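Researcher: Re-running this chain for the archive, since the previous output was lost when a drive failed. Same request as before.
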Amino acid sequence: LLDTRSLYEPLQKQALREDLQRALNKVDQQDGEQLMIALRQFKHLNVLRVAAADIMGAIPVMIVSDYLTWIAEAILEQVLERAWHMLAAKHGCPPGTGPGPAAFAVIAFGKFGGIELGYGSDLDLVFLYDCADGNAATDGEKPIGTAQFYLRLGQKIRHILDTKMLSGVLYEADLRLRPNGDSGLLVTHIGHYEAYLRDEAWTWEHQALVRGRFVAGDKHLKTDYE
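Model: Regenerated structure tokens:
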């Protein structure tokens, strides 16, 4: 608030990524609570910059939503990265994957997908994964099936985003656009997702795809999704 040079200059996308990476380098890989606190501080700080620049007319109204979307994207990338490492430390990685997030994608819909986030917007998300055998075990000391690993990854991402803390929730995550809505699995195999959209989806689900956009995860899955 006191330094008007930085207050009215919200960070661009790459600078946000680097700033968040520096902040999280100080947080232990397995400390979920400190991670959630650091992410919330980062969000509050950068949304304040956007709001101050918005109110003072330092940035055009039309690109306020761009800045807010970039903040959410930078956060989601790190949430996925950290959630993966937490799970991998306990269960190991699925066959054919390395130390970082692989064969998993976060797809944005609605205002997030359309790069139209407002200050209080929630995030419309769908989680996709890809694997040849969902029953193949991970390679850690406490192995679990690959499909179960990706399900837990989705649950952990959601937990980090919408756990209520003193500093509030990071983002409300709305996952109702996944196949079969609230009654469907939290994480969907990309093959099943394609079949669902082709054979079972409602018209409004096809309409929602207009704003579907890959925002974090495996670039190969990004290509497959697109």
